[in-house]
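The record is given unchanged here:
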Amino acid sequence: MFTTGSGVLHPNCAALGQGIVSADGRIDRSKLGPLVFADPKQLQALNGIVWPELIAEVNRRLDVLRSQADVPRVVVLEAAVLLRAGWETNCHEVWSMIVPPEEAVRRIIERNKLSEEEAQKRLASQVPNSEIVAKSHVIFSSQWDHEFTQKQAERAWKMLTKELDSCQSSL
C-alpha cells in the first residue's frame, strides 16, 4: 500500500511530509511510526488515507471471488485494523488473537527496537483486549502453546463449517 502509484503514497506525503519517503520511493515505516504513534491526530490522518484504500482493495478482491464459477464458502480477511476501522460489521465471524499488554510491549520493543515509552504509545493506539473480546466470536491467546492453539482453531473451523452446512441445507 505504501508504494509509488498505490494511491496512498502521495496523500501521505502531503499530510505527513516528504521526510517519510525512503530513497527507493517507499514510505519508510521507521520514520512514519514515530510521527503517527506520538500524535493521535497524525494517526487519524494516516488512517483516513490508508483505510479507504484498504477496504476498496478488499472489496475488489471480493468482487473477483464472487464472479468465479465456484464461489468460495469462506473468505478469510486478515486485517490488523479490522476492529479499529469498524469493518467487523461486514464479517459473519471475527476471530481474534489477544496478547497480555506487558507481553505486547515487550514484543514491540524487541521487534521495532523502541523504548518502553514508544512501545506503550503504540500499544495505546491499538484496540484493547477487552474490546477485542467483546467484538469477537472466537478468541485465541498468544500465550497458548502451538498444539493447543491448533486444536482450538480446528474446533472453531469445524463449528463454522457446521453452521454453514446448516444454513445451506435450509435454503
Q: What stands out?
A: DSSP finds eight helices and two strands in the chain.
